[in-house]
Write a structure and sequence with these properties.
The protein has about 400 residues and is mostly helical. It has 16 helices and no strands.
Length: about 400
């Protein structure tokens, strides 16, 4: 397990660290308007690709008994079909965002979504068929490359604004998709032999409809955070929220990638250790928030970015709770509760959307900071409740 998990953990840390540094680079080299435009376009692309995949990478890991190439081709065909069918919805999201130059924005959204789709399928493919170091590079290369390009474009082409950020992201995703090239071979790459008596029997037995419903709920909630925040509070406020979610979200994503995914890949159970891992991630999230506040108070960034300071405390609370949730997210798949897991997650997404959209629907003149506390507090309570349920799941 250590021979596989250590490179993946290091790669996940490098990947998430690069994404966090990309957020810092946006603060340093680009205006709030450029960062906000990039955040909206990239969020719509993420929404599109998330619906297209319908949690195929997670199923790829949970159903480790299926032949990798056969599973990949099936996931690729169905994902590309959904990508085409969802094109009108993606265009409606671009129209709803009220971005300038809708045609150009739509072209960027489509490019980012298609390239992300390739990278997201390349990661589980490499994890199952390639040596651990190669799988680690498949995960880490795109964000590292994007970070280098963002810094270079910020220094050499400062007038690029949002186009420079979008170009850097597209190049990174394209590099990650290259790991799918090995799937063209007609023979399977050998994968590690499973243990004769695995400690846990795990699988993703959810129906396609339930996986798609769960995906729609997650993607809608994630995309609505930026789009509705922009509509309710403006592009600059949306950039504050988006960048902080990118920076503070590093720990929940790291916990999920380096802990929950590794436990799924190795079919290993854990409960008590998972709780401690989640609490450690929560503490690290608080430290990141304190460091971010200190940097914003200093002379390193333009004064316009200090409007981000009131967002830090509520978002730390939200993302710290997400760390505990991420650390326990493997348990439903290992104990036959994956259907209920999706049902509860959909209910949580609906609650999040309700709190997010309430000021717009009811016409409340709610200040952005107050709205952030309501949203973050609701999400934190919901995530802790779901974490308690996952921690108390009984073996069949």
């Amino acid at each position: 397990m250590a021979r596989t998990s250590l490179p993946i953990a290091l790669a996940s840390a490098a990947s998430l660290g690069a994404q966090a540094l990309m957020g810092v680079a946006m603060l340093r080299f680009f205006t709030p308007t450029a960062a906000g435009t990039f955040a909206v376009i990239s969020q719509i692309a993420f929404f599109w690709v998330t619906l297209s995949l319908a949690q195929s990478p997670l199923k790829f890991l949970a159903d480790a008994h299926l032949p990798p190439r056969q599973a990949l081709l099936s996931a690729l065909r169905s994902s590309l079909s959904r990508w085409v069918l969802l094109l009108p919805i993606a265009y409606c999201a671009v129209w709803l965002s009220a971005l300038p130059h809708a045609g150009t924005s739509m072209a960027w959204v489509a490019s980012l979504a298609l390239l992300q789709l390739g990278w997201y399928l390349a990661q589980p493919w490499a994890l199952r068929t390639a040596p651990p170091v190669a799988a680690a590079w498949a995960r880490a290369t795109p964000p590292l490359l994007a970070l280098v390009l963002v810094v270079a474009l910020g220094l050499l082409w400062p007038a690029s604004e949002g186009n420079g950020l979008l170009l850097a992201a597209a190049c990174g995703y394209a590099a990650g998709s290259l790991w799918l090239a090995s799937a063209r071979a007609p023979t399977e790459s050998p994968s590690p032999a499973p243990a004769p008596t695995p400690p846990v029997q795990q699988a993703d037995r959810r129906s396609t409809a339930l996986r798609l419903a769960h995906t729609v709920a997650d993607a809608t909630a994630g995309t609505a955070i930026i789009l509705l925040w922009q509509r309710a509070h403006g592009t600059a406020e949306a950039s504050y929220l988006a960048i902080l979610l990118r920076l503070l979200g590093i720990m929940p994503a790291l916990v999920h990638a380096a802990w929950a995914q590794v436990l799924l890949a190795q079919a290993l159970p854990s409960r008590a250790r998972s709780v401690w891992v989640g609490l450690g991630g929560a503490l690290a999230t608080a430290v990141i928030g304190l460091l971010g506040a200190a940097l914003l108070e200093g002379p390193w960034f333009a004064p316009s970015w200090r409007g981000m300071l009131p967002y830090i405390a509520p978002l730390v609370l939200w993302q710290a709770s997400a760390c505990v949730f991420a650390a326990l997210s493997h348990r439903p798949f290992q104990q036959g509760q994956e259907n209920r897991y999706s049902q509860w997650s959909i209910a949580f997404d609906a609650l999040q959307l309700l709190v997010l959209a309430a000021p717009l629907l009811l016409g409340w003149p709610l200040p952005a900071t107050t709205h952030a506390w309501w949203l973050a507090g609701t999400c934190a309570l919901g995530l802790i409740a779901l974490s308690g349920w996952m921690a108390g799941i009984k073996l069949k």
